[in-house]
Amino acid sequence: MPMTDAWQTAEIPGPKKASLILKPDIADALISRAKRPIMIVGHGIVEYEVDGKPMIECLIALARKAVIPVVVSASTNREFLSREFEPAAIMSAVEISSRLTDPEWKGLDGKEPYDLAIFVGLPYSMEWTILSGLKHFAPNVKTMTFDCVYQPNASWSFPNSTIKDWAANLKGIVENLED
After folding, report:
1. Cβ partners under 8 Å of residue 3, min gap 6
2. Mean pLDDT of 90-95
3. What are the structural domains, with CATH classification, of the chain?
């Protein structure tokens, strides 16, 4: 399967497809340039490891280093709290995505809209649908997905890759971000 084909057969994204994140530097540059990034995290993150550590620890390091508020699903909140990291909000991915489409919404802190939404750990079909909605109804919000499968409805996505390559990229993103 080519790197820019949807991970799931018969998913047709339309003419506008995600650009590939082939190196951690690409994601780092996008995160660094964003004025107001936000990370939406689903329960899938508890299934994977990065260098022998739970993936959640990599995401916490990223959120702390880049000062990104994290929105988690209810089932994931306990995992964050057990690592002494308080998410910015507990909310379903559908609800936070709906808010991102509202140009009048000023974010969780009431300051201003988010300009970059990073998704990770959601079920593929749910993320596909959410990203499609954001692509069409939130043109001022760029989207990035940190899953190991290509999501063509995002603005930026990793290609379909092995867990090993994917984990190395995530680790590289965290390590390369400027302090």
Report:
1. 20, 150, 159, 160
2. 96
3. 20-178 (3.40.50.1220)
